[in-house]
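dumping the sequnces here before i forget
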Amino acid sequence: MDGTWPQEIIEKAWELGIMNNHIPEEYGGVGASYLEGCLIEEEIAWGCSGIATSIGANGLAAAPLLVGGSEETKKKYLGMLTEAPKLASFCLTEPNAGSDVSGMRTTAVRKGDTYVLNGSKCFITNGGYADWFTVYAKTDKDAGHRGISAFIVEKDDTVTVDKKEDKMGQRASNTATITFNETEVPAENMLGEENKGFKLAMMTLDRTRPGVAAMATGISRAAFEMATEYSKERVQFGVPIAMHQAIQFMIADMATKVHMSRLGTWNSAVLLDQGARNTLESSHAKRYAADSAMEVTTDAVQVFGGYGFIKEYKVEKLMRDAKIMQLYEGTSQIQRLVIARETLLPRRVEEPATA
Ligand code: CAA
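..and the predicted 3d for all of it:
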């Protein structure tokens, strides 16, 4: 609520092994399946999705490394996350390149054995506390999405944290602007091939959107449970309000949305675990679970009536937290765009679904 950074909780999560879920055992991780990751993310988000975001963001930074990194890079940077409770951030978004990823302006220019990075990335989860960053930058300014490359960048004096956002919800998570000022990166820290970073970003989001959908399911479930309990206790017109059909229909819709969000989420994760491409299913899951979280939390506030609007009751926090689900890792509109394209023009992608 007050925006305190949850360092102790992050350390505890790391100790328990519920961070860095998908890092394989050979790099010191637990190598959990995507389905198992979703179970963890739903449970943590049921308690607090801000904490879930802080704990889960390493997964977003690590995914492109798992897909496109060399053996040495994986050992070094994934090892950093599994040997100590350190954090890494995924740097894709820029002030003028949110949904339109290929509009980014950050540049990476080859200089001998290094690339020199310049530019600013915004809305970076854990940005203020990260030890390394997965950064997307233009290596060919005139080639649109075919001119983007991805790099692992270590925090040093040339990497500055410019702004910490004061957010509506998920106040336990850190969201910052990170600027790279003539930042030199060894050429071996490039992930995959030069100018192939856009696809790496898309393949990353295919892998991480099920986790966001799981968090949205956790938020919905918390709101649904609170509304259900309250409706059985609150008496109006001489009976608990759960006896009124107006409330019963809201509770029924909430129950269906939680159930369907979870099934869609698990489906998108199981496909990944089977090595199949899940672009369509992960957008279905993320879009439906996020929009449902907004609807379910809004209805939960409605069931609580005036009390729902008061900070003393947790449903108002859930409603504020739910909003980001429709925004980060691709807005609900972008998910619909992906769903429409995948439905109307199914693409054959050569890359394997898993590294
Ligand atoms: N897997 C592999 N390749 C893919 C792919 C996928 N899922 N999706 C697209 N591609 C490939 C295409 O096949 C195409 O390949 P060619 O170059 O061979 O033609 C190429 O990528 C370009 O694809 P599009 O033409 O579809 O690209 P586009 O410019 O129209 O963009 C988009 C598509 C879906 C809108 C994409 O830009 C997008 O997902 N935008 C949203 C970005 C987003 O989610 N940002 C959130 C950042 S993370 C975050 O929120 C931060 C945080 O800390 C929580």
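The chain has nine helices and ten strands.
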